[in-house]
Amino acid sequence: MNQNPFEDSAKLLTTLGEKTIAISNILQPYFVFFGKHFLAIQESMASFAQAMSQYTSALQEPLLRIMVSEEKKQRTVKAFQECDLWLAPSMLKLSDKITQLYYEGKKQVIPSVISRYYRNNNWSILRNTVHYWGLNSYFAPRMNIIYDALGAHVNGKYTLSIPTLLPHIEGIASDIVKKHKIPKLKEPVIYTKAEYGMDGAVTQPSRVFSGVAINAFSYEEWTAIEGLLYYLEGILYFSPPGSRKGINNQKNQPQLKRHLILHGIQKKYATSMNSLRCFLALDVLSLINENKDKSTK
User: Which has the closest alpha carbon to 238: 113, 84, 87?
Assistant: First the structure.
C-alpha cells in the first residue's frame, strides 16, 4: 500500500475528474436539447393539462346524469315494492307521483291511485294497453285469451281473469326464451341471497330480461323491469322454505301466489288489484317486441 495518503488522494481526484468529464460529455446533448425546447415542452404540457381538464369536465355531466337516474330508479322501485307493485310502461306518467306519495308517508293510497288511473273512463287506459299488445308478435297468438280475461276483469270476475292470465306470463316468456335460445340462470336476477338473505325463484321472465342489452331500454323501462322481477322472484313464484308449513300459512292470504292459485290451494286471491297485477306483469313483458326491434342479445 502507498504510504503517502496525499499521492492516493491526488490519483483519486484525477480519476473522478476524468469520469465526471466523460459523464458530462454524455449528458451534454440532452441538456442542450431540453434547453432549446424547454418553452415548447412547457407549452405542450400546459395544453395537455388543459385538454385533460376539458375532457374530465365533459365526462362529469353524463356521469352525474347516470348517478341521478340510478338514484331516482331505486327510489321509484322502492316506492312500488312497498305496495307489492311495480312501474309499468302504460303508467310511466305516474312514476313521479307514486314516488312522491311514498316519501310523503302516504303509501296506503298508492294502490287506489294506480287502480283509479286504469279504471277511469271505463278502463280506457287498460283497454288501450291490451289492444296495443296485439301488435306484439309474442302476444298476438294469445289475444283472444287476454281479451276474455280483460272482459272478466272490467266486470269484476277476478276468479276468472287471474287464473286465465297467470300461465301466460310464463308462457310468453318461454316463447321468447326459446326464440332467442337464452341460457338457463343459476340464480335469480334481483331477489338474491346477497341482497335479501335468501334466493328467490328463477323465473322465465328473469331469463328473458337477463339476455337483454342494457341499451335496449330507457332507465324508466329498466325501473319497470327491475320492479317486476323483484315481485316475480320474491313473491309471485316464490315458494317458502318448509314447504307444507309455508303453504298452510299462505293459502288464506290475499297475496298473489302463482303455484298456490293454479294448484287450487289459495282461495282468497280474487281481488281487483291482484287481477290488475297480472295485466301489469304482461305490460312489462310486452317491452320485448320484435316488431320494435328490441330483441335479446
Answer: 84
Helix H or strand E encompassing 3: none
CB 75 within 8 A of CB 99: yes
Write the pLDDT tens digit of every residue in 162-198. 999 999 999 999 999 999 999 999 999 999 988 888 8
Q: What is the DSSP letter of 185?
A: P
Contact 228, 222 (CB under 8 A): no
Cell of 195: 341482497
For residue 214, count CB atoms less than 10 angstroms from its CB and return exposed for 0-12, middle for 13-18, buried for 19 or more. exposed
Using CA atoms, how far apart are residues 227 and 208, in angstroms rounded to an integer?
Answer: 15
Helical residues (DSSP H) of the chain, grouped into ranges? 5-81, 95-103, 110-133, 143-154, 158-180, 193-196, 204-210, 219-231, 243-250, 258-262, 272-285
Query: 2 CB contacts (<8 Å, ≥6 apart)?
Result: 8
SS3 for 17-82 is: HHHHHHHHHHHHHHHHHHHHHHHHHHHHHHHHHHHHHHHHHHHHHHHHHHHHHHHHHHHHHHHHHC
What is the pTM (predicted TM-score) of this model? 0.75
Give buried/exposed letters for 108-131 (b at 16+ CB in 10 A, else e).
eebbeebeebbbeeebeebeebbe
